[in-house]
Amino acid sequence: MFHFLFYLPHADQMAFLRLFKYLSFRSAGAILTALFIAFWIGPSLIAWLKVKQGKGQPIREDGPARHIIEKKGTPTMGGLLILISVVVSTLLWADLTSWYVWIVLFVTVSYGLLGFADDYVKVTKRSSDGVSGLIRLAAEFAIAAIATYCIMRLQPPEQSGALAVPFFKNLLIYFGFWFLLVGGCVIAGAANAVNFTDGLDGLAIMPVMIAAATFLLIAYMVGNERFAFYLQLVYVRDTGELAIFLAALIGAGLGFLWYNAPPASVFMGDTGSLPLGGALGVVAVAVKHEIVLAIVGGLFVLETVSVIVQVISFKLTGKRVFRMAPIHHHFEQLGWREPTIVIRFWIIAVVLALIGLSTLKLR
Q1: Are 109 and 273 in contact (CB under 8 A)?
Q2: Is the distance from CB of 284 to CB of 246 less than 8 angstroms?
C-alpha cells in the first residue's frame, strides 16, 4: 500500500520517497511494523484468550507428565497474534500488484482459519483431538493445490510444472499437471511438519524465523534477474516481493516469541503452526526451491520422520523406536531440560539454514 501511496505518485517530486521502491527498505519496514503490531495487540489478545478459554489449551494425557502441571491453564490460538501482524504488515509494505503476494496470503490465511477451527474444537471439547485428521488433510491439500495451480499459471511454460534441482545449473524436472501433487505435498507437508515441531515453548517459532530469513534472501535473488544470472539460479519474475511477506513473518515471529519464551504466556496452537508451515511451503514452490526447503527446514523434517517411524514401528512390531514422539519429547524423557532442547534445536536450525544457503553458490 505504501508503494502506491508514496512512491508511484510522488517519486519525481520528492527523491527520498524512492526508498519505497527498494525491497531492502520495505523489508525492514515490514519487520518493524509486524513487531510493533505484535507488541501492541499482544497483551490484550492474550488476556482475551485467557477469558474465553478458561482452562487454556488441553494438555495431552499421553505427553510428558510435567506438562500437565507446568503448562496447565496456558491459552492457545496465539497464532492469531502472528497472523494479524503478518497480514497487516504485508498489505502495508508489499507491492499489491504482485499475484505471488496474494497467493501466499491466501494460503497463510486459509491455513490459519483451518488451524483456528482445529483449536476451537479442542478448547470447546476439552480434548487434545481437534478436527478429523482426514478432513483437515483434505482441506490442506485442496488449498495447496489451488495455490500451486495459480503459481503454475503465473510462470512461463519452461518453468510451469517443473521442479528445480539444487547443485545443478538450471536443471528442471518436468511434472506437468502432476506438479499439483508435488506442490500439494510440499505445502501441506511443511504445514504439518511445523505443527509436529510445536511442542515446547519457543521451539517452533525460532526455526520458522530462521527458515523465513533464509528464503527472504532466496526470494530476493531469484526475483532479481541479475543476481539469478550471476548465481545461475532459475529466475522467477516478480517473486522478489515475497521478501516483504517473509520479513513481516520474521517481525511477527519476534513479537510472538516475546510472549512465548519460557514459561510461555500463550501457545501458537494450530492457528499458528499450520499457516507458518504452509507459508514456507508455498514460498518454496513459488521460488522453485522446494528441495532446498527440505534442507533449510530439516529440523521440521526430522520431527515428522520421528513420528512416522514411531507409528510404523509400533504397528509392525509393537515396539517404539523413541521413548516418545515427536523427537523433542524423546529428549525430554531422557532427562533433558526444556530450554536445553529448545536452544540446541535452534542451533541445528541455524546450521541447516547455512547448508541450504550454500546451495545457491554450489553449482
Answers
A1: no
A2: no
Burial code (b: 16+ CB inside 10 Å, e: under 16) for 259-278 equals bbeeebbbbbbbbbbbbbbb
Is the model more confident about 214 or about 169? 214
Contact 24, 224 (CB under 8 A): no
d(C-alpha 235, C-alpha 230), whole Å = 10
Tell whether the model's pLDDT for residue 228 goes beyond 80: yes
Instruction: Kindly report the length of the chain.
Output: 363
Identify whether the C-beta of residue 246 lies closer than 8 Å to the C-beta of residue 86: no
162: which strand partners?
A: 174
Is residue 22 left, alpha or beta, with left meaning phi > 0 and alpha meaning psi from -120 to 50? Answer: beta
pLDDT digits (tens, 9 = 90+) for 127-162: 667 677 788 999 999 999 999 999 999 999 989 999
Backbone angles phi, psi at 159, to 5 degrees: -110, -30
Digit-coded pLDDT (tens) for 278-322: 999 999 999 999 999 999 999 999 999 999 999 999 888 888 888
Q: How far is CA 280 from CA 112, 143, 190, in A?
A: 13, 14, 7
pTM for the whole structure: 0.92
Which of 131, 89, 75 has its CA nearest to residue 269?
A: 75
Q: Is beta strand 162-164 parallel, antiparallel or unpaired with respect to 172-174? A: antiparallel
Provide the mean pLDDT of the chain. Answer: 88
pLDDT for 255-265, tens place per residue? 999 999 888 89
Specify the 3-state DSSP secondary structure of 302.
Answer: helix
280 within 8 A of 293, measured Cβ to Cβ: yes
Supply the DSSP string of 202-227, one letter for each residue. Answer: TTTHHHHHHHHHHHHHHHHHHT-HHH
Alpha-carbon gap, residue 207 to 327, rounded angstroms: 15
**What are 197's three cell numbers?**
515441531
DSSP string across 46-102: HHHHHHHHSS-SPPPTTS-HHHHHHSTT----THHHHHHHHHHHHHHHS-TT-HHHH
